[in-house]
Amino acid sequence: MCVLQETKFSKFTSFLFVLPYLVVFVAFLLIPLIFGAYISFHDWDLLSSTHKFVGFGNYAKLFDPSTYFHSVFMNGLWNTIKFVIFSVPILIVGGLLLALLVQHLPDKLKGIFRSIFFISYAISVSVIAVLWLWLLDTNSGLFNHLLAKLGAAPVQWLTSMPYAWISIVAATVWWTVGFNMIIYINALNEVPDELYEAGSVDGATPWQKFWSITLPSIRPVMVFTIVTSTIASFNIYGQPYLMTRGGPGTSTKVLLMEIVDQAFVQRQLGIASAMAIVMAIIMIVISIIQFRLTRNNEGNEA
Q1: Which UniProt keywords apply (predicted)?
Q2: What is this structure's pTM?
Q3: Does residue 43 belong to any structural domain of this protein?
């Protein structure tokens, strides 16, 4: 009987530890998600007290080429995809290269350089935007000042293409690559030294060790960084909003900016919710594809 009571008490104690997270999850994720899906099936104007049920009408507008909402949605989606294509490979490869660089430094310097490369990740996006706006300002920015010293013409970093995208990607990589670096460093520390010693005995070159030992050993971590970096890049908002305001024109206006604009400027919350749901589905599909491709590659290698 005592054992049974102790078991029940242990389960209740475990539930109490999980309860705060469960409450936050339900209040700030599950309920908004369900309510957002509900809104997406209605013609929901923020200034109207009546919200007509339209079924999949809002979703149909997004994929009907004859509607204004289709062009808005596709422009935002395409700009978001372009940012993902531009940024994710740099974040993955750059994070790994930084991790390898730090790993080969003397032990006394490792901690210093880990902090140097990671500290930018702890800064808020607003601070990052202000910093890069100062660096990239056409008239008084540091970069154009250096170009002037070299006798080159100033560059319209934030108001012309492709420099606007280059600026946003550069700011994002500088801001977030340190996170991937830390993840890779932890993964590299878990690779057994015996594998490298065996490779040295077999006469393997540093490149062969990296390709045959390091990469296979950290593959699960690489999958994690690819998926998380892709999801984070799909959710880009602060950098283009604060740095270029979506310009020049709408060439850097990403999907989240379009969603916010439709929801709180145009007051079309139903359309905005439909855009957000479609965006979430796209991210889920991409994540599943990435996991499947990685799993298939592992099976082929085995």
Answers
A1: Cell membrane, Membrane, Transmembrane, Transmembrane helix, Transport
A2: 0.89
A3: no
